[in-house]
Design brief:
This protein has about 400 residues and is of the alpha/beta class. It has two domains: about 70-225 and about 335-405, Rossmann fold (3-Layer(aba) Sandwich); about 230-315, no CATH class. About 45% of the residues lie in helices and about 15% in strands. The chain contains 16 helices and eight strands. It has helices at about 1-20, 30-55, 60-70, 125-140, 155-170, 170-175, 190-205, 230-235, 245-255, 260-265, 285-290, 290-295, 305-310, 330, 350-360, 390-405; strands at about 80-90, 90-100, 105-110, 140-145, 180-190, 215-220, 335-345, 365-375. The chain has an eight-stranded mixed β-sheet, sandwiched between helices. α2 packs across α3, α5 (about 155-170) crosses α7 (about 190-205) and α9 crosses α10 (about 260-265). The longest helix is centred in the first third of the chain and has 23 residues, at about 30-55. The termini are far apart. One of its GO terms (molecular function) is carboxylic ester hydrolase activity. Keywords: Disulfide bond, Hydrolase, Signal. It comes from Podargus strigoides (Tawny frogmouth). This is AAAD deacetylase.
Amino acid sequence: VDMGAKLLCLVLASALTAYYLYTPIPEDIEEPWKVMFIASTFRALGHLAGVAEQLGLMNYMEAMTVFADTEYVAPMSDENVTVMDTEFNNISVRLFLPRKPTDGLRRAMVFFHGGGWHLGHVGTKSYDHLARWTSNQLNAVVVSVNYRLAPKYHFPVQFEDVYSVTKFFLQSSVLSHYGVDPARVCVAGDSAGGNLAAAVAQQLLEDSEVETKLKAQALIYPALQTLDLNLPSYQENKNKPILSKWLMVKFWSQYFTSDSSLGEAMASNRHVPLESSHLLQFVNWSNLLPEELKKDHVYTSPVYGSSELARKYPGFLDRRAAPLLASDAQLRGLPLTYILTCQHDVLRDDGVMYAGRLRAAGVPITHDHAKDAFHGAMSFVVGPTELAVGHRLLNRYMEWLNGNL
């Protein structure tokens, strides 16, 4: 009996290991075993978080935060960059100040980290590294913003935090204190941070109190719209590494509310009320995507949902949450733009549609589409999960910044 029990345990353990390790990895992705390891680690953590929620220990996002916090690093200066945690307008930021001597004024970046508005921190190892690398490579001041997170805080708190820091930093007295050239400031962010950067750039155009104009915005695989969560990229990549459709729907819905009815409506793409149907033109992929991304997909307009949901949680119809909802007139005048999209990413089509709309509105844009990459790839450039594709994307982004900021 003992032998049989051991054998059964071994079979179960092997099956579980195989389940976690085996993630279908697209053929064109290099270092597939490394990517499979990363994907299976994320999946295992997601399952643990789900179990913690079912047992009533903590909710899913709180559990994921516990895992994410293990990646925290304290602010550490090095020979190239002085690093410190401080506050701008009562909001916590991590400042990266280059030590290289300079003839004139420096460039600057205000950076917003990703993590679905729920996870991440300026001290997460990959974000600390990215900001430090940016500061050193560009000889630039980098302000990395620690905005408040969901589910404790819902939209518009995250937007208001990053906007408040950006506005504070753009004051001429603050810029001159840090030796920054007011004509060379940009906002940037990845994923949810790319969403916030796009929203900040739009809002600044309409803010008469801000005299300093942004030179550029850099949006790394940004989330840009809440209306249609069944775009070709959502259909094709719903189970791809790092960001599944299920998790993105969870991030979006819980950005606005902890009421699960919004998440259920979003999951079945039945959350846009009839009275907001005029907004669908701004995310209609059949008009806004190039042919090679439409493939055999047939456009169907989302089924209209309850007006009550939209009344209770109007945030998902707000362009500060969904920058693609800006009209063409509101896009004109946006600064020089860099958008990175990845082929194997549910958010791919958001970035592609925004790039097309900005181009049509006369905004100078560089759209960098990585056919062999997945969501979050640029975060994997340090430690054991270092990926060649992450370095490649990081270098292209840095090259653009260096030439345009």
